[in-house]
Amino acid sequence: MKVILLKDVKKIGKRYETKDVSDGYAQNLLIPQGLAINATLEAVKRIDVIKNKLAVENKVQEELLAKNIKSLESIVLTIVGKANEKGHLFAGIHNEEIVAELAKHAHVQVDPSFIQLTSPIKEVGEFSVEVKAEGKSAKFKLIVKKG
Asked: What is the pLDDT of residues 25-38, one digit of tens each?
């Protein structure tokens, strides 16, 4: 059965991809949980419109960030997280949390995909976080404190 994924599904595919899965998997798991819809002609057209709109919005955001990327270098961002005595965080800090703090304290809108972290930050300390957009990049300082 052909389905269109509405969310990223591990070992199946990414959001808005059309995949061929078994009927039982689609009808018993993917569709009831809102992870996919049937790939009808109308649904494919609707998803194509959504994908095009998202691509345009992402491109505009990337161009805007590329113009203002140098303003990020002066930013020092502080995030407080729960940690043990050795400074290991109980929950890692991901791109989405960094983006939320940037928007809240520095009033800078950045898409999480532009933040270049190899893995979540899991320790207290100072980190240099890189932001890349349209071939340009900037780094800002992130301080993680024990809270």
From this structure: 999 999 999 999 99
The class level of CATH for 68-146 reads alpha beta
User: For the chain, where do the domains classified as CATH 3.40.5.10 start and end?
Assistant: 2-66
List strand residue ranges (DSSP E) for 52-87, in order: 76-81
Q: Which residue's entry shows tokens 């024990």? A: 146
Q: Return residue ranges of the chain for CATH 3.10.430.100.
A: 68-146
Q: Chain-centre distance of CA 102, in angstroms?
A: 14
Provide the 10 A C-beta neighbour count for residue 1.
16
By CB atoms closer than 10 A (0-12, 13-18, 19+), residue 127 is: middle
**Amino acid (one-letter) located at 50:** I
The CATH class, in words, for 2-66 is alpha beta
- Please tell me the distance from the alpha carbon of residue 107 to that of residue 100, in angstroms, as a whole number: 10
Does pLDDT of 114 surpass 90? no
| Bridge partners for 131 per DSSP | 115, 138
> CA gyration radius for the chain?
19
